[in-house]
Amino acid sequence: MTNRLVPPAGPQRVLALAQLTNSIGDGAYYVTSALYFTHVVGLAPAHVGLGLTVAWAVGSVAGVPLGRLADRRGPRGTAVLLALGTAAAVGSFLVVRGFVPFVLAACAYATAQSGLAAARQALLAGLVTAGERTGLLAHLQSTLNAGLAVGAGLGGLALQAGTRAAYLGVFALDAVSFLVCAGVLSRLPAVAPVTVRKRDTRGVLRDRPYAVVALLNTVLLLRMPLLSLGLPLWIAERTAAPAWLVSALFVLNTGAVMLFQVRMARGVTGLASATRAVRRSGWVMLAACAVFALSAGVSPWVAVGALGGGAVLQVVAEMGQSAGSWQLSFDLAPTDRVGEYQGFFGTGVTVARTLGPLVLTSLLVGWGTPGWLLLGGVTVVASYAMGPAARRAAGRSDRAVRQPEPTLVR
After folding, report:
1. Residues near 33 by beta carbon (within 8 Å), at least 6 away in sequence
2. Alpha helical stretches, state H, 36-193
3. 3-class SS of residue 408
4. Whose CA is closest to 333, among 207, 220, 195, 218?
5. Spatial distance between the Cα atoms of 231 and 119, rounded to a whole number of angstroms
6. CA–CA separation, 144 vs 69, rounded Å?
């Protein structure tokens, strides 16, 4: 079990430690931020929502140039600086007291976070061989969930206390977690900046085959707000299941990813296995949607059984889709633009988090069972389209067939 949960010693384990440190702070931030901004900062909920939407829109755009910076200047130094920038942005939340300063701080936070994600992916690509990347990303996903769970528990203590000092303590913890993350990342070997091919001036935004793959992945990621928004609203509005089930389903999902994501990713080693994993996940997600739909109009315990069964299928689909998309995002990127391409691929998460709530509430709460089936059907279509899209992207004449070994600066 230890080998499945802990990556091998060396750079892989250091990357996991960096992931753990900042995810603890993020977990505390996620469960307390809404009440902090409304109760402590004094902003209206509508202003908080608007400010965060603007911030993540800015952050998604900034991910590409910051990823390019990581490629050109070296991913380790860029990642360390962006971790420090994230810490500073979180620290600024402690002193903002108005809407405009809040938006500026939120934009700085989202920009640094998006850039940090791209730089870390470029750093991972430079430190780990191509065959080990998906396995390491599975470890990092498990570590992320563990850190978020610990952080959420700490945030829950602040919510229970409900005092200004408790909220400020949570945000200070998040800032410190990114300072520690920067220190951990600085312990990694430096990766040499890549040499740009002078004839290649397109950039990721003009690489249409890769953009199609990223777009299809974004469609598959629309299920991201399912546990935090879609299912809670479905349970409250359409089923007789008890409210505590929302928390139980979240714990089930988090625990399953912690325990089984590494195992699920083990068979994904190239483009063919990645597209198969995505295709299988589409069918499993369709089955999950159908089972979720069965929870409406039945007795409470039958609803609990249907929702629990659907949640199991959903997390299996999630782990398969994640493993396949990680492999595709790296294998289809030119070797001298990993950070830039990862910055672009990562915008799918932001778009899914922005559009997902609207899509899910309209389909599930508004349409009921037909909405569930439509969501599952769209997932199957997108997952099947991923195969030809990936083959087209891989067939580009300027796409590297073999990934080089990592180049380190000792």
Report:
1. none
2. 45-73, 75-92, 99-127, 130-161, 164-185
3. strand
4. 207
5. 33
6. 25
The owner of tokens 């990556």 is 7
CA dist., res. 122 & res. 66, Å (int): 11
d(CA 291, CA 208): 36
pLDDT value of position 4: 56
pTM here? 0.79
Residue 238: both structure tokens together = 């359409």
Report the alpha-carbon distance of residue 366 to residue 315 in Å, rounded.
24
Closest C-alpha to 143, from 312, 262, 241: 262
Of the ranges 44-53, 119-128, 272-281, which is most confident? 272-281
Say whether 409 sits in a helix, a strand or coil. Answer: strand
The structure tokens listed for 57 are 């829109």
- Annotate 354-391 with b (16+ C-beta within 10 A) or e (fewer): eebbebbbebbbeebbebbbebbebbbebbbbbbebbe
Please report, for residues 165, 166, 194, 273, the alpha-carbon distance to residue 225 in angstroms, rounded to integers and kept in the order given. 30, 27, 36, 27
Q: Which two tokens stand for residue 339?
A: 């950070």
> Which DSSP string corresponds to 73-93?
H-HHHHHHHHHHHHHHHHHHT
- The rounded distance, in Å, linking the Cα atoms of 336 and 196 is 6
E-state strands within 294-334: none
Residue 402 C-alpha from the chain's centroid:
27
**The pLDDT of residue 156:** 83
Q: How far apart are CA 28 and CA 153, in angstroms?
A: 7
- CA atoms of 101 and 98, how far apart (whole Å): 6
**Domains of the chain listed by start with CATH number:** 2-191 (1.20.1250.20), 204-394 (1.20.1250.20)
| Residues 150-175: tens digit of each pLDDT | 888 888 888 888 889 999 999 999 99
Question: 52 and 106 in contact (C-beta within 8 Å)?
Answer: yes
Q: Are strands 190-191 and 408-409 parallel, antiparallel or unpaired?
A: antiparallel
